[in-house]
Write a structure and sequence with these properties.
The structure holds two protein chains of two kinds. Chain A contains 17 helices and 15 strands. By secondary structure, chain A is α/β, with parallel strands linked by helices. In chain A, the strands form four sheets. Chain A has a five-stranded parallel beta sheet. In chain A, a hairpin with a 5-residue loop joins strand 11 and strand 12. In chain B, strand 6 and strand 7 form a beta hairpin. Chain B has two domains: 315 residues, Alpha-Beta Barrel (TIM Barrel), CATH 3.20.20; 71 residues, Alpha-Beta Plaits (2-Layer Sandwich), CATH 3.30.70.20. In chain B, 29% of the residues lie in helices and 22% in strands. In chain B, the strands form six sheets. An eight-stranded parallel beta barrel of chain B has the order 3-4-8-9-10-11-16-17, surrounded by eight helices. In chain B, strands 6-7-15-12 form a four-stranded antiparallel beta sheet, with no helix packed on it. Chain B has a two-stranded antiparallel ribbon with strand order 1-2. By secondary structure, chain B is an alpha/beta fold. The chains are: A alpha/beta, B alpha/beta. Chains A and B meet through helix 1 and helix 4 of A and helix 10 of B. The structure holds flavin-adenine dinucleotide, flavin mononucleotide (FMN) and iron/sulfur cluster (3 copies). One iron/sulfur cluster (SF4) binds next to helix 11 of chain B. The site of flavin mononucleotide (FMN) has 27 residues of chain B, from strand 7 and helix 9.
Chain lengths: 439, 418
């Protein structure tokens, strides 16, 4: 067997559990009292509970628990950094190693699909009030689901042609197959949530227009869609790309990145950098290397992701920061790095440099001129999602500065509870709806 | 919660039960607070810890378990007797439980050592307001031969004490059987003749789970010694199912209703007891190991099963398997089913080969280079290989071959193995 894994861009890298192997793993679970894993899940997916269902031969019940608590349970099962969340908390680590919670969650969600379970259904009684959500990423989807379940009419306005946000346009398909996201989105749609695509709020329609159209409240889950390009010399060269552009292009073309025979250098040490490297490798690049300015220990990337790119044969050069990009006729030819020790220097040929140095919000004032932002340009919202504007709420990456899908879900869910509370009282504090600050 | 929830209510001996899942008589239902907690968790009712005039004086330690290949608690051994609480206190618990949880079913479990004690305990049960009374004829570790499984293996005594109870109260009486007997139907019929309306089976099986090499005695070690005593948990379920099926198939017991006990942990286990004719399910060992919470997945799992199969009423499931459990001499022996081995799923462990060579009919050839098994024409269709293969769906029932000169008929095949 080769040391390196062979894989395809569009097919999932990791195999799931079968009934038997899922039971074997569930049998390792200690079935803890006051399960620490459950406390470790930001979205309250309750792994302690669903693993118990698997253990007691009730995988459908497990799927219900997951879906009830986390409308994006299928996607989260694939991409959650479990080693930092539920699995980090797992008591079994005190004996040997944590339970593979993400993989058990995936197993349960596969059962949901096999048995066509519909756990969440629209309520019998609908409310007259309507709510708009901006963006169809995890935060909005979770918020919309909770609102729809409470009877509100919910419409999601999405700039792109498809729902899912970064899950559809960022995370590569070998980690998160599109059909998994689509099933999660179907669960939202099944609650009666409507989607309006190719509509950018702030350009195609204003926040004010939404109010005029009768939406009693607005949730903003716009994410972080502006990639930070460094002010490194040569960053404007043809061949220097941002991670989100690169990944989005790969996903929307089904992996036709036209990298055959090319040398690709990815800069960064987070999951996004790993995704870019894996995508480049699996879509045909001749050579791929990651350069990271700190040590491997300091790299924020999840351990599994690091292992995965290693398994694809992608090296990671640490303690080297980009110094200069050198081109010829406007086209990138090489990249130069300087060492953290102040002495080392590296120059590597590169046809493409992918910069994965983090995302920033787009100009949020385009949504509403008077929307208060933080210094970094994030939406300034409090813990319950209130912005400075009445009945305008926000959460997810656009507020927290970029965390994880499951945290976006958790926030969207929590803000929905707050929105419902406010809308229930709407007649009483009607004054707020016409301009007074709600906070 | 939008989860699938079916109506799991069922009548047992005329008492409406919100579901068939009950605690069996044991420490899991030993005082007021425990039972209150189990009710909150979702159990439909409780068979309270056996109450006698005799108050138990227990040994320590009193439990042991045995396992296999890393999995503990396949079976569980206990040396406990009946309640160690004062008789009056127990009846006070029962009265309070019935008052505070009128919709839950409260059953007293009683054990006397003579007719008068049985009558007295029955009367006290009635005064406490219980829904049903169970007679414990089956504890295998009593310290007197006048009580427990020694009584339960004597049809005369079972009948006599059942009569004692039913002569003083109209509350339906259930006789709890011991499996430490060859033919359980005899004491069960005796109980019915004595007026019992229900039969519970099984109590624990006399056992030695492990021998301790430190003190050269059985486990658990009590001051260097041990005793033979009752075995329960997952390992006894097959034995319990057999006893229950035989009771439910007995024409002489056609008016009796049955409560199945023994190794129930999941909804599937419970369903098995329903399918062999039980209208009520009791659990102890799994609760001792995992807690009351296991009832949540029993309720949910059974609901899903009913949803999937289109059942709306639990009654429709009761006894469904009974007509298909037949004497060995009536089985169709005209054919053999040759297994099919999926060479792609096979991981090449060779376990089927070893087992067929050493435990069956040398009907598997081993392709050394390919590390794959191939079935030859000595195969008798025993399916040892299917049972031993570690890969799900790798060895499955394949071709049906009729024996020489036998009639070719349509054969029903099991297709899906977990
Ligand atoms: C490459 C990559 C890999 C990642 N890997 C992981 C991972 O493994 N695990 C993990 O948990 N998280 C991961 N994340 C992070 C995760 O994707 C985000 O935290 C999460 O998607 C945030 O959700 P959100 O709803 O806040 O925003 P987004 O997912 O960004 O969704 C925002 C949506 O709003 C739309 N939008 C923006 N502005 C407007 C507007 N004005 N009008 C209408 N629509 C608008 C966007 O088109 C988008 O669809 C990754 C992110 C990236 C980029
Ligand atoms: C610790 C322990 C104590 C028990 N005490 C009683 C009892 O007091 N009365 C009784 O009828 N059965 C008693 N039993 C038997 C159980 O009620 C039950 O019949 C048996 O354990 C099989 O079911 P299980 O496999 O679910 O445990 C006891 C069992 C255990 C394990
Ligand atoms: S913390 Fe780990 S061992 Fe405990 S219930 Fe959760 S998964 Fe199981
Ligand atoms: S069915 Fe029995 S005889 Fe046939 S191959 Fe399997 S183990 Fe051997
Ligand atoms: S037991 Fe199953 S996996 Fe092992 S060799 Fe036989 S067929 Fe293959």
């Amino acid at each position: 067997m080769s040391k390196l894994a062979t894989a395809e861009y569009a097919s999932e890298a990791q195999a799931g559990f079968t009934h038997r192997t899922a039971m074997e793993e569930a049998a390792r679970c200690l079935l803890c009292h006051d399960a620490p894993c459950s406390a470790g899940c930001p979205a309250g997916t309750d792994p302690g509970r669903f693993i118990r269902s698997i253990r007691f031969r009730n995988p459908k019940g497990a799927a219900e628990t997951i879906r009830e608590n986390n409308i994006l349970g299928g996607s989260c099962a694939r991409i959650c950094p479990c080693d930092k969340l539920c699995e980090e908390a797992c008591s079994r680590s005190g004996i040997d190693r944590p339970i593979e919670i993400g993989k058990l969650q995936r197993y349960a969600m596969e059962q949901e699909n096999i048995f066509h379970l519909k756990t969440r259904r629209p309520p019998q009684e609908k409310k007259a009030l309507r709510v708009a959500c901006v963006g169809a990423g995890p935060a909005s989807l979770a918020c919309a689901a909770a609102l729809a379940e409470a009877g509100y009419g919910v419409t999601i306005f999405e700039a792109e042609a498809k729902a899912g946000g970064m899950l559809t346009y960022g995370v590569p398909p070998m980690r998160l197959p599109q059909e998994v996201i689509d099933r999660d989105i179907d669960a939202v749609r099944g609650l009666g949530v409507e989607f309006v695509f190719n509509t950018r709020v702030g350009r195609d329609i204003g926040l004010g227009d939404l109010k005029a159209k009768g939406f009693a409240a607005v949730f903003i889950g716009a994410g972080l869609w502006r990639s930070k390009l460094p002010d490194t010399e040569g960053a404007e060269l043809d061949g220097v790309l941002t991670a989100v552009d690169f990944l989005k292009n790969a996903r929307s073309t089904g992996g036709r990145t036209e990298l055959e025979g090319k040398s690709v250098v990815v800069i960064g040490g987070g999951d996004v950098a790993m995704d870019c490297a894996a995508t480049a490798k699996l879509t045909g690049a001749q050579s791929v290397a990651i350069y990271y300015r700190r040590t491997l220990e300091e790299a924020p990337a999840n351990a599994d992701e690091l292992r995965y790119v290693f398994s694809l044969g992608v090296p990671i050069v640490t303690n080297f920061a980009p110094a200069r990009f050198v081109g010829d006729g406007g086209k990138l030819k090489s990249a130069e790095f300087k060492g953290r020790d102040g002495k080392s220097f590296a120059s590597v040929t590169a046809d493409v440099v992918v910069f994965a140095a983090g995302q920033a919000p787009e100009d949020m004032t385009r949504l509403a001129g008077d929307l208060r932002l933080t210094q970094e340009g994030l939406i300034d919202a409090d813990g319950s999602g209130h912005t400075n504007l009445p009945f305008v709420f926000a959460a997810g990456d656009a507020v927290n500065g970029g965390k994880t899908a499951v945290e976006a879900v958790a926030e969207g869910k929590a803000v929905a509870v707050e929105m419902i509370a406010r809308l229930e009282n709407a007649p009483k504090d009607g004054a707020n709806r016409d301009g007074k600050e709600v906070r | 919660m939008m989860a699938v929830r079916k109506d799991l209510s069922i009548e047992y001996l005329g008492v409406k039960c919100e579901n068939p899942f009950f605690l069996s008589s044991s420490p899991v239902g030993g005082n007021y607070d425990m039972v209150a907690k189990c009710f909150e968790a979702g159990w439909g009712g409780v068979f309270f810890k056996t109450i006698g005039i005799f108050v138990a004086d227990e040994c320590s330690p009193r439990f042991d378990n045995n396992g296999k290949e890393g999995l503990p608690w396949i079976g569980f051994k206990n040396m406990e007797q009946i309640s160690d609480k004062p008789t009056e206190q127990n009846f006070e618990y029962l009265a309070r439980l019935k008052r505070d949880y009128p919709d839950k079913v409260v059953v007293s479990s009683i054990m006397g050592s003579d007719e008068d004690e049985w009558k007295k305990l029955a009367k006290l049960s009635e005064q406490a307001g219980v829904d049903l009374i169970e007679g414990n004829f089956s504890c295998p570790q009593m310290t007197s031969h006048a009580m427990g499984s020694d009584v339960g293996s004597s049809p005369e005594l079972v009948k006599q004490y059942s009569e004692a109870v039913t002569s003083v109260t109209d509350i339906p009486f259930i006789a709890k059987m011991t499996p430490n007997i060859t033919n359980m139907n005899l004491p069960a019929r005796a109980a019915a003749l004595g007026g019992a309306k229900g039969i519970s089976a099984i109590n624990t099986i006399k056992s030695i789970t492990n021998i301790d090499f430190e003190h050269m005695t059985a486990m658990p070690v009590v001051d260097g010694k041990s005793s033979i005593s009752g075995y329960s948990g997952a390992a006894v379920r097959p034995i319990a199912l057999r006893f229950c099926a035989l009771l439910a198939q007995d024409a002489l017991l056609r008016d009796a209703e049955f409560s199945g006990i023994g190794g129930v942990e999941t909804w599937r286990d419970a369903l098995e007891f329903l399918l062999v004719g039980c209208r009520n399910i009791q659990v102890t060992t799994a609760v001792m190991q995992y807690g009351y919470r296991i009832v949540e997945d029993m309720i949910s799992g059974l609901s899903h099963f009913m949803e999937e199969r289109g059942y709306d009423d639990l009654d429709a499931l009761i006894g469904q398997a009974l007509p298909n459990i037949i004497p060995a001499e009536e089985l169709n022996r005209d054919f053999r089913i040759i297994p099919n081995i999926d060479r792609d799923k096979c991981v090449g462990c060779g376990r089927c080969y070893i087992s067929c060579c050493d435990g069956a009919h040398q009907a598997i050839d081993w392709e050394e280079d390919a590390r794959r098994p191939a079935i030859n024409d000595k195969c008798v269709g025993c399916h040892l290989c299917l049972n031993v293969c570690p890969v799900a769906g790798c060895i499955t029932p394949g071709e049906i071959r009729f024996k020489e000169g036998r009639r070719h008929t349509d054969i029903l095949l099991k297709r899906y193995y977990d």
